[in-house]
Amino acid sequence: MTVTDTPNVAAALETADRGDKVASHLHPDGSWTVEDHPVPTGREEIWRFTPLKRLRGLHADAPFQASATACTWTAPDGVRVEGVDGEQARSLRGISGFVPSDRTSARVMSEVPSTLLVDVPADAEVTEPIVVTLAGSDPEVTEAGHIALRFGAHSRAVVVLVHEGSSSIAQVVEAQVGDGANVSVISIQDWADDAVHLSHQEALVGRDASYRHVAISFGGDLVRMNSNVRYAGPGGSAEMFGLYFADAGQHLEHRLFVDHNAPKTRSNVDYKGALQGQGAHSVWIGDVLIRKVAEGIETYESNRNLVLTDGCQADSVPNLEIETGEIEGAGHASTTGRFDDQQLFYLQARGIPEDEARRLVVHGFFADIVRKIGVPQIEERLMQTIETELEKNVGRPAVTVEEGA
Predict the structure, then answer these.
(1) Distance CA 271, CA 121 (A)
(2) Within 10 Å of residue 329's Cβ, how many Cβ atoms?
(3) Which GO terms describe its biological process (predicted)?
């Protein structure tokens, strides 16, 4: 199957571009044609942080084999969740306005025959989370998948994507958020230590709609996630939160792109990460493009990293690309550092042992993001996972920190 264009893509891009052809230096125009995307060498700006040799060929031409990953879900009454193929699957490619930006995503959109559709009707208020679980069983099987999340106008819903087990998977997740909707998409990467996961998670936010995306990465040998947002009309709001905890040898990479292509839109990006163990590596690349038509917008992006032991590396690169001065506000912040000695001293002076003091500091570091998720069972799971990660830390806080530009 070769996809060249779809009515969804054409309509979304016509709305999004509004005749403004200013391009992001990190996000050039995409293409549906696989051959338009050369195999990356690692020298490209968007690939220079990623260890390509560990991707098992997913960035190139590894075959997409029959899936070894089981997909199960729970769906409240009134919500349609099902696998579709054929013309119905093809009609869902590009519902977020996404046009493939690299070879992997172009191959997923062209070669994967089926799509998992989560369909929330207009005006529905779904009180229970819609949980989709992808459980891998064989990291030697290279595979791919496409998920379409369609939220009707004025709907309210939370979708949780849980990734676990062992897998080597390339993935595109698209969210179409209808006008006036209020929705959340929570993606949890809790893979086994041998998993490789390349994911593009794209959203098109409707007029006066609210979209919240939460990315949580703890497991996996290598996880690289692109989380992107654009707007289908004025008044839309996007919040993008993230947590990650990199252990020895792990590579966790999160790349964010917010395309303010409509006026009176808002965005807020807040990611926090911790690192421990020799060779632990985190990458966070944030980019906000404010187009000429996007007057009256407001945006802020922040990334903070806490280094727990020697031998870690955190690369953090925020970017703002501004094409109009008629905005409410725009800013970014990035920090990478070790434990605050004053916090440790304060806690130890009150009789708290050093190991417990460090544990409390890390819990406090993550707590404000966890509380913003708004799903109690997910929040409890995350705090328990953080506790488990801390039990692996037998070293001391890093004295030196390697930080990206």
Answers:
(1) 31
(2) 9
(3) iron-sulfur cluster assembly
Residue 17: the pLDDT is: 46
Helix (H, G, I), strand (E, B) or coil at 225: strand
Which residues are paired to 158 by β-bridges? Answer: 184
Q: Tell me the two tokens of residue 260.
A: 């303010």
In DSSP notation, 185-202 reads: EEEEEEE-TT-EEEEEEE
| Residue the block writes with tokens 């016509």 | 14
Q: How far apart (Å, rounded) are the C-alpha atoms in residues 154 and 103?
A: 35
What SS3 class is residue 129? coil
Q: For the whole prediction, is pTM greater than 0.70?
A: yes
Q: Are 241 and 275 a contacting pair, CB within 8 Å?
A: no
C-alpha of 53 from chain center: 22
In angstroms, the CA 215 to CA 168 distance is 19
Unique residue bearing structure tokens 């709305």: 15
CA 137 to chain centroid, in Å, comes to 23
Do residues 171 and 143 touch, judged by C-beta distance below 8 A? no
| Rounded average pLDDT per 10-residue block, the chain, 405 residues | 36 43 69 96 95 98 97 94 96 96 97 98 96 97 98 98 98 98 97 98 98 96 98 98 96 97 97 95 96 95 93 95 89 85 74 79 84 86 84 50 42
Q: For residue 125, what pLDDT is reported?
A: 97
> 3-class DSSP state for residue 210?
strand
pLDDT of residue 359: 79
Burial-class residue 239 by CB neighbours within 10 Å (0-12, 13-18, 19+).
middle
Question: Residue 203 in contact with residue 256, Cβ under 8 Å?
Answer: no
Q: In sequence order, which residues have a C-beta less than 8 Å from that of residue 380 and are 6 or more positions away?
A: none
